[in-house]
Write a sequence for this structure.
């Protein structure tokens, strides 16, 4: 799956990583619902760090259709809330 981090670029992620990323996404949703800004910041950073760690960066001159778009690290709680679907930032497992 091709994932774009806003303001950074695209990475290719194997389906095997989505269970872990979905757990972080669920944690992020819980923190947003509680209005826990510090927790939201911490979990968003952890989610993006994990995507960067396990993803294979695509070359800057390559533009593939992104199947998933994640907010950048400086996104506000309100900005992320506007990006949410029914299943959070990361929909159920692909495939």
């Amino acid at each position: 799956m091709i994932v774009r981090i806003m303001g950074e670029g695209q990475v290719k992620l194997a389906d095997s990583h989505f269970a872990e990323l979905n757990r972080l996404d669920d944690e992020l949703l819980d923190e947003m619902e509680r209005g826990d800004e510090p927790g939201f910041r911490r979990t968003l950073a952890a989610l993006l760090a994990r995507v960067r760690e396990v993803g294979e960066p695509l070359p800057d001159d390559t533009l593939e259709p992104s199947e998933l778009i994640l907010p950048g690290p400086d996104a506000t709680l309100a900005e992320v809330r506007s990006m949410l679907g029914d299943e959070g930032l990361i929909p159920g497992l692909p495939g």
Summary: Helices lie at 18-34, 37-54, 77-83.
